[in-house]
Task: inverse folding
C-alpha cells in the first residue's frame, strides 16, 4: 500500500491493502514485499508507527528480563552470606542487569516513543529514512538477543556495565561473556547511530508548515537533544569497544599494563560516552512529563522556551562532566575541581525544569489521572535523585560515596523514579492513541502506588546502606560487619529486598492492566481525544492512519490542537471551547491530500541486520562463519542499494492517476 | 517521480524540506559529524600511546615521510577529481562524471595500495599489531582510515556502475555530491592524521 | 485522592529527615561515612554536612510546593485557567537562587579538594598495593620512616595497616593486576589503586582504634571479600609494633607440633608465602617466588600473621568473636596493649582458619582451579586447595600461631 489514493478512514484504519495493488518486479533483486495483514508484514514494514510498537514490545520484554535479574540480585542480598547466586553468577547478573536496563530497555523504549510520536507531533508522514529506521530496529533487536545468548553459551559478561580495564581483558575474564557484550553493544550501537541521524533529519527537515522549532512539543525537543547526544556519544563508545575487542580477539595491547598502557584511557572513553548517556536516558522522560503536566493542568507549559533551552543546555554541559565518575580514580586536584564545578553547574538547568513543572501546575485545573500521577511521581522522585546528585558533585564528599550503595540509590531515583516513571506516564497517556483503548484507571492507580511504594522501599534504604559504607557490586554482606542499631545494613538490605518485590508486583499489575483492557468486553473504545490533549499527535485517528494525516495541518501556535479546540478571550482571559476534537479532525480531513506516496516495504533492512550477529558469532567461534556472515552482509547491502526506497508509481497497478497534479508528499529517496 | 518534481518545482526531484537541504544531504552532514568523534577517539588513543614503545621500533625509526607524503598528495588530488566529478554531474554530463569518478577511485586505490605497502614494510621492520602500544594504536587508527577510504572506493565504483545503467534512485547529481562529501571528509581526516601521526615528532 | 499524595510527600520528607538524622545515630556501623575519626575525614564531613542540610531543605521546599499545588489546584470544577506561558522575572529569580546556592557550595568544595591533595606535610610514607583480593602494605626503610619511626628495615604486611596516631601518613596506592580502591571511611575518602600508576592518599587517625574499610572498585570474583582495616596506635604502641615486626625469626622448638608445621610450611606454603628468616635445612634463606605461581605475582607475607587480627584479605577474623570484641571495644588507653597482644591460642578463630586451609577457594571465590587456568598459563588468582589432611592442618595452625 505504498500509494494511497484519496485516503479514507475505512481503508486506513483496517490497515488492509486495497485489492489490486500488487508490486511487480521492481528494480530490486527480489520482488518487493506486498502489504498484508499477516505477522509477516511486521518483518518488512518501514512504517514508523509499527516500528515504534515493535521497539516498545521488545523493549518491555527486556525490561522483564532485566527486572528478573534485579530480583535475583535482591534475593541474594536479602540475607547475610547469600547463597542464591555464586560470585560468578552474581557478577554476571549485575553486569547484565545494568546493560539490559540501559541498552535494551530505556534506550529502545525511548526509541519506541520517539519513532511513534515525533513524526506525528511535527506533522510528518514518516521519518526521513524509513528503511534505515527499520534497519536500526532489527540491529537493536538482533544485538540484544545476541547479547543475551551469552547466558546459554558459557556465561554472560562479568565485568560490570562500566567494564573497566584491565579487569575486562581475557586474563581476568576468560569466558566469552565480555566478547558477547562488546559485540552485542556494537550492533545495538548501530541502531542508536542510525536512529539519531534519522530523527535529527526528520525533526529538522520534515516539520509541517508553520511548525517552527519554538512551536515543537517539548517531547520532540528533548528527543532532538537526545539524538544529538547519541550522535556524538555513540562513536566514542564505539572506539572504546573496538579497542577492547581488538584486545580480546586479536591480542592488541591497548589495556595491557605490562606494555605501558594506561587503564584510565578506558575510563575516559567510557564516561565521555557514559555521562551523556545518562541524559540520553532521562531527557525523553522529561519531555514526556512536559507533555502530560500541561494537559492535565489545562495550562500551557510554564516557561516553554526555558524548558526547551534548559534541555539543550543540559545536553551541552553534559559533555563537560564525565570525570565526576572518576573522582576517586586519581585525577589531579585541578581536574577534580573543574569537573566538580561543572557538575554543580548542570544542576541549574535541571532544577529549572522542576520549577517549571511545578509552576505549570500552579494555578491550573489539575486532574489526577494515572499519567498525571506518574508525572508527579517523576517530579518528586527525580528531585530526590537530583539533590543526592548535588551531594556528590561535591568531590571530597563523593570520595566517600562513590562506588557505594548511595550511588546506587541516587541513580535509581534518577533512572527508575525519573526515566522509568516518565515512560510509564507515557504508556498510560498514549495508550489510547496507539491501541484505541484506554488502560484501566483503577488498575493503573494500583499500579502507580505499588510502584511508588516499591521503588522508595527498594532504593530509599540504599541511601542509608551507602552512607553506612556498603560498597556496590558486593556478592554478599556479613552479619559480623553489618553494624548494630537502627541503621545496621542487615535491616535495610532486607527492607530493600522486600521493596523490590512490591515493585515487581506493581509492574506485574501493568501487564495485567494491558491484558484486562484488551480482553475485557467491558472496556469500550476510547474517545478520539480522551485527555483533552494539546499537541498534533492527537489531531488524527486512533490509531493514526498509515500516512498519519489525511492532510498536513498548518501550525500557527504552540499547542496547536488545543488552540483549534479552545479560544481565549483577549480581555478577560476566559477560555472556552469552540470545537470538539472530532470537529477539528473533520475539518482537517475535509480536504485530504489526493496522492500520498508512502515508502514501500522492504526485505533488506531485516536481512542486512541479520548478517551482523552471524559475523559476531563467527568472530567468537569460527572465522569461517564470519566469512559467511560478511558475504551475506555484502550481498544484502547490494540488494538494498539496488532497491529504490519508494517503488515508482508505474510499479503499481493501478498506476497513479493525475500525472503532475495533486498534493504529493514525497519521502526520502535514499533512505 | 516526475510528478513530485513538477509539483514542488524543486530541481532534481528533491522533495521540499523545512531547512531547504535535502534529507539525504542533511543526513550525510550529520553522519560526518558523528564520524568526527569516531576519529577523535582513535586519534586521542594514538596521541596518548605513540610514545609508549615497550618493544619493537619507535615511530621515527620506521616512518618514511617522503613516501607517505606522496601517497597523501595522491589522496589530496583525489579530492580535486571528486570535485570535477560533482561538477560534471551537475552539468548532467554522464561521460565526464564517470570519468572523474573512476579517476577518483583509482587515486584512492593508489593510496590504499600505498598503505598496504607501508604496513607490510613496517611489519617487516618489526612493528606488529601486538608489538607495542604504539603498534596497536597506529594500525588501528590508520587501519580505520584505510577502511573508510576502501568503503569510499566501493561506493565510487558502485556509483559508476549505477550511473552507466541509469539506476540511481532520485537525483544523480545529489547522489554524486553525497559520495563526494564523504570522500572529502575522509581526505580531511587524513590530513589531520598525517600531520599528527607522521609530521609531529613524538 | 488528595490525601495520598500528601502521605507520599510526608514519606519523602521523612526519608530526607531520616538521612540527616543518620549521622548521630549509627554508633556501631564500622564503615559509617558520617563518623570521621581523623582530620581528613573530618574535613570532608564538615563540608558535606551543610550540603546535605541544604539539599534536604531544598528538597522539603520542593515537596511542600508540590503538595500545595496538588491540594490547592486539583480540579474542583473551576473554569479553565488563563493560558499563561510564563513570567520571565519569576523564572530568572528561580534560576538565580540555585546558582547562588551552588556558588556557596562550590567555593568551600574547591578549597577542600586542594587541601586534601596536599602532600608536603607528610610525616610517613607507606606503599599500599592491591591485588586480587587483598592489600599489601610495605613500609619503606627510608627517610622519615627510618629516622623518626625506627623502620630501619622494610616491613611488609597485609590485612591490617598499622599507623601511628596523629601522624600525617601518605599512602602510595597502586595495584598489581586490576583496579582496586583503598577506602577507610572514618579516615578519608577512597582512592583507586590503578596498575601502572601511583596515587597518593592522605591518612591520619586521631584516636587509637581499628577502622574498617573495603575495596570499592569492582575487582572481579571476590570483590566482596576484599576488605581492609587500618589500626591507629599511640606512639609508644606503634614503636613496640615496629620493633616486633623487625624482630628476628625464631624456629619452633624441636619435636613440637609447630616444628612439624614449619617443615610442612616450607613444603607447601613457602613457594608463595614469605616468612622472613625461614631457612632451608642447609641454612639458606627461603625466598618465596609467588611471581611463578600467581597472576599478581604476590602473596601475603606471613612472618607476623598472628599480630594482625584478620586473614584472607581481611575477610575473616583470626580472633574469635568475643576476643575480637575485646579489642574493638577497648577504650583508648587499653586498646594498644590488647591489640599488640596479637592472637593467642585461646582466642584463635579455629573454624574459619581451618576451613581456609582445608579448601580456600570454597570459602572465598577465587580462580584457583588448576584445571581452568588456560587463560593465565596455569597461574593462580587466589589460594588453591592444597589437599591437606586434618593432621597437617593441625601442624600448620600450630606453626602459624607462633608467627607473632
Result:
Amino acid at each position: 500500500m505504498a500509494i494511497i489514493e484519496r485516503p479514507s478512514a475505512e481503508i486506513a484504519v483496517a490497515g488492509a491493502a486495497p485489492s489490486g495493488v500488487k508490486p511487480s518486479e521492481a528494480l530490486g533483486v527480489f520482488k518487493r514485499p506486498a502489504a498484508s495483514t499477516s505477522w509477516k508484514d511486521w518483518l518488512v514494514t518501514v512504517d514508523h508507527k509499527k516500528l515504534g510498537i515493535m521497539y516498545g514490545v521488545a523493549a518491555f520484554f527486556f525490561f522483564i528480563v532485566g527486572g528478573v535479574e534485579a530480583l535475583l540480585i535482591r534475593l541474594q542480598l536479602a540475607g547475610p552470606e547469600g547463597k542464591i547466586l555464586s560470585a560468578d553468577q552474581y557478577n554476571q547478573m549485575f553486569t547484565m542487569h545494568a546493560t539490559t536496563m540501559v541498552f535494551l530497555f530505556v534506550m529502545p523504549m525511548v526509541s519506541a516513543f520517539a519513532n511513534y510520536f515525533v513524526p506525528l507531533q511535527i506533522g510528518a508522514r514518516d521519518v526521513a529514512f524509513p528503511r534505515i529506521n527499520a534497519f536500526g530496529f532489527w540491529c537493536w533487536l538482533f544485538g540484544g538477543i545476541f547479547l543475551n545468548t551469552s547466558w546459554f553459551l558459557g556465561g554472560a559478561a562479568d565485568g560490570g556495565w562500566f567494564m573497566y580495564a584491565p579487569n575486562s581483558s581475557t586474563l581476568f575474564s576468560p569466558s566469552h561473556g565480555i566478547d558477547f557484550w562488546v559485540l552485542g553493544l556494537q550492533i545495538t550501537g548501530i541502531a542508536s547511530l542510525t536512529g539519531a541521524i534519522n530523527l535529527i533529519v526528520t525533526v529538522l527537515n520534515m516539520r509541517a508548515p508553520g511548525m517552527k522549532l519554538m512551536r515543537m512539543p517539548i517531547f520532540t525537543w528533548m528527543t532532538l537533544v537526545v539524538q544529538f547526544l547519541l550522535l556524538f556519544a555513540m562513536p566514542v563508545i564505539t572506539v572504546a569497544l573496538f579497542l577492547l575487542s581488538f584486545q580480546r580477539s586479536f591480542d592488541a595491547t591497548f589495556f595491557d599494563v605490562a606494555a605501558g598502557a594506561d587503564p584510565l584511557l578506558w575510563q575516559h572513553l567510557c564516561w565521555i560516552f557514559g555521562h551523556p548517556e545518562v541524559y540520553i536516558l532521562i531527557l525523553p522522560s522529561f519531555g514526556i512529563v512536559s507533555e502530560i503536566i500541561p494537559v492535565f493542568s489545562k495550562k500551557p507549559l510554564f516557561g516553554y522556551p526555558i524548558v526547551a533551552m534548559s534541555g539543550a543546555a543540559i545536553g551541552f554541559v553534559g559533555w563537560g562532566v564525565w570525570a565526576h565518575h572518576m573522582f576517586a580514580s586519581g585525577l589531579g586536584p585541578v581536574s577534580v575541581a573543574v569537573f566538580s564545578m561543572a557538575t554543580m553547574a548542570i544542576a541549574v538547568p535541571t532544577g529549572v525544569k522542576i520549577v517549571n513543572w511545578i509552576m505549570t501546575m500552579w494555578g491550573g485545573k489539575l486532574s489526577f489521572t494515572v499519567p498525571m500521577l506518574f508525572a508527579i511521581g517523576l517530579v518528586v522522585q527525580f528531585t530526590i535523585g537530583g539533590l543526592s546528585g548535588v551531594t556528590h558533585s561535591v568531590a571530597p564528599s563523593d570520595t566517600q560515596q562513590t562506588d557505594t550503595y548511595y550511588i546506587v540509590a541516587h541513580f535509581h531515583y534518577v533512572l527508575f523514579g525519573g526515566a522509568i516513571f516518565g515512560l510509564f506516564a507515557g504508556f498510560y497517556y498514549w495508550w489510547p492513541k496507539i491501541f484505541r483503548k484506554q488502560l484501566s484507571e483503577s488498575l493503573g492507580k494500583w499500579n502507580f502506588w505499588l510502584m511508588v511504594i516499591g521503588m522508595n522501599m527498594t532504593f530509599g534504604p540504599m541511601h542509608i546502606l551507602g552512607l553506612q559504607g556498603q560498597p556496590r557490586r558486593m556478592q554478599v554482606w556479613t552479619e559480623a560487619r553489618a553494624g548494630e542499631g537502627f541503621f545496621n545494613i542487615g535491616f535495610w538490605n532486607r527492607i530493600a529486598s522486600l521493596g523490590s518485590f512490591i515493585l515487581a508486583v506493581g509492574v506485574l499489575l501493568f501487564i495485567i492492566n494491558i491484558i484486562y483492557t484488551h480482553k475485557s468486553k467491558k472496556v469500550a473504545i476510547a474517545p478520539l481525544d480522551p485527555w483533552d490533549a494539546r499537541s498534533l499527535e492527537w489531531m488524527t485517528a486512533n490509531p493514526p492512519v498509515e500516512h498519519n494525516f489525511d492532510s498536513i495541518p498548518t501550525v500557527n501556535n504552540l499547542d496547536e490542537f488545543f488552540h483549534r479546540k479552545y479560544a481565549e478571550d483577549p480581555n478577560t482571559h476566559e477560555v472556552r471551547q469552540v470545537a470538539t476534537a472530532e470537529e477539528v479532525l473533520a475539518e482537517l480531513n475535509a480536504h485530504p491530500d489526493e496522492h500520498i506516496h508512502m515508502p514501500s516495504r522492504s526485505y533488506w533492512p531485516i536481512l542486512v541486520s541479520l548478517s551482523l550477529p552471524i559475523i559476531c558469532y563467527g568472530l567468537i567461534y569460527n572465522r569461517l562463519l564470519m566469512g559467511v556472515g560478511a558475504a551475506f552482509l555484502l550481498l544484502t547491502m547490494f540488494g538494498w542499494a539496488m532497491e529504490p526506497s519508494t517503488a515508482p508509481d508505474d510499479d503499481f497497478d493501478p498506476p497513479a492517476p493525475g500525472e503532475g497534479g495533486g498534493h504529493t508528499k514525497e519521502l526520502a529517496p535514499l533512505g | 517521480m516526475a510528478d513530485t518534481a513538477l509539483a514542488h518545482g524543486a530541481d532534481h526531484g528533491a522533495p521540499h524540506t523545512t531547512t531547504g537541504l535535502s534529507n539525504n544531504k542533511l543526513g550525510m552532514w550529520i553522519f560526518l559529524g558523528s564520524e568526527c568523534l569516531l576519529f577523535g577517539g582513535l586519534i586521542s588513543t594514538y596521541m596518548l600511546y605513540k610514545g609508549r614503545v615497550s618493544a619493537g621500533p619507535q615511530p621515527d625509526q620506521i616512518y618514511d615521510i617522503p613516501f607517505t607524503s606522496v601517497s597523501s598528495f595522491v589522496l589530496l588530488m583525489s579530492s580535486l577529481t571528486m570535485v570535477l566529478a560533482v561538477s560534471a554531474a551537475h552539468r548532467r554530463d554522464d561521460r565526464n562524471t564517470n570519468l572523474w569518478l573512476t579517476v577518483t577511485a583509482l587515486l584512492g586505490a593508489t593510496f590504499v595500495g600505498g598503505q598496504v605497502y607501508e604496513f607490510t614494510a613496517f611489519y617487516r621492520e618489526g612493528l606488529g599489531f601486538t608489538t607495542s602500544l604504539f603498534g596497536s594504536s597506529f594500525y588501528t587508527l590508520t587501519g580505520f582510515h584505510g577502511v573508510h577510504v576502501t568503503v569510499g572506493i566501493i561506493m565510487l565504483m558502485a556509483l559508476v556502475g549505477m550511473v552507466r545503467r541509469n539506476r540511481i534512485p532520485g537525483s544523480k547529481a545529489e547522489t554524486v555530491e553525497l559520495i563526494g562529501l564523504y570522500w572529502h571528509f575522509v581526505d580531511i581526516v587524513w590530513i589531520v592524521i598525517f600531520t599528527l601521526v607522521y609530521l609531529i615528532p613524538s | 485522592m488528595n490525601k495520598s499524595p500528601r502521605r507520599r510527600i510526608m514519606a519523602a520528607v521523612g526519608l530526607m529527615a531520616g538521612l540527616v538524622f543518620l549521622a548521630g545515630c549509627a554508633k556501631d556501623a564500622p564503615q559509617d561515612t558520617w563518623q570521621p575519626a581523623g582530620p581528613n575525614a573530618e574535613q570532608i564531613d564538615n563540608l558535606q554536612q551543610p550540603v546535605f542540610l541544604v539539599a534536604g531543605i531544598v528538597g522539603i521546599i520542593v515537596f511542600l510546593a508540590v503538595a500545595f499545588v496538588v491540594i490547592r489546584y486539583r480540579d474542583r470544577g473551576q473554569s479553565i485557567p488563563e493560558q499563561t506561558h510564563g513570567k520571565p522575572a519569576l523564572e530568572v529569580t528561580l534560576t538565580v537562587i540555585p546558582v547562588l546556592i551552588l556558588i556557596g557550595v562550590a567555593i568551600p568544595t574547591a578549597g577542600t579538594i586542594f587541601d586534601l591533595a596536599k602532600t608536603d606535610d607528610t610525616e610517613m610514607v607507606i606503599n599500599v598495593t592491591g591485588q586480587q583480593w587483598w592489600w599489601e602494605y610495605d613500609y619503606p626503610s627510608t627517610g622519615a620512616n627510618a629516622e623518626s619511626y625506627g623502620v630501619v628495615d622494610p616491613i611488609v604486611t597485609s590485612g591490617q595497616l598499622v599507623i601511628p596516631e596523629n601522624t600525617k601518613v601518605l599512602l602510595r596506592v597502586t595495584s598489581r593486576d586490576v583496579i582496586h580502591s583503598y577506602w577507610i571511611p572514618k579516615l578519608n575518602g577512597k582512592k583507586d589503586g590503578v596498575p601502572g600508576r601511583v596515587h597518593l592518599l592522605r591518612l591520619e587517625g586521631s584516636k587509637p582504634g581499628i577502622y574498617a574499610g573495603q575495596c570499592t572498585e569492582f575487582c572481579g570474583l571476590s570483590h566482596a571479600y576484599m576488605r581492609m582495616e587500618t589500626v591507629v596506635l599511640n606512639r609508644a604502641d606503634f614503636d613496640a609494633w615496629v620493633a616486633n615486626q623487625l624482630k628476628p625469626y625464631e624456629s619452633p622448638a624441636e619435636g613440637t607440633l609447630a616444628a612439624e608445621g614449619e617443615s610442612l610450611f616450607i613444603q607447601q606454603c613457602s613457594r608463595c608465602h614469605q616468612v622472613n628468616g625461614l631457612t632451608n635445612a642447609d641454612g639458606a634463606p627461603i625466598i618465596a617466588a609467588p611471581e611463578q605461581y600467581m597472576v599478581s605475582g604476590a602473596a601475603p607475607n606471613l612472618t607476623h600473621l598472628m599480630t594482625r587480627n584478620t586473614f584472607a584479605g581481611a575477610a575473616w577474623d583470626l580472633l574469635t568473636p568475643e576476643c575480637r570484641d575485646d579489642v574493638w571495644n577497648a577504650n583508648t588507653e587499653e586498646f594498644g596493649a590488647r591489640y599488640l597482644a596479637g592472637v593467642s591460642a585461646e582466642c584463635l578463630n579455629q573454624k574459619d582458619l581451618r576451613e581456609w586451609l582445608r579448601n580456600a577457594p570454597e570459602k572465598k571465590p577465587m580462580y584457583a582451579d588448576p584445571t581452568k587456568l588456560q587463560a593465565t598459563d596455569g597461574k593462580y588468582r587466589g589460594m588453591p586447595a592444597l589437599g591437606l589432611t586434618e593432621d597437617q592442618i593441625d601442624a600448620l595452625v600450630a606453626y602459624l600461631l607462633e608467627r607473632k
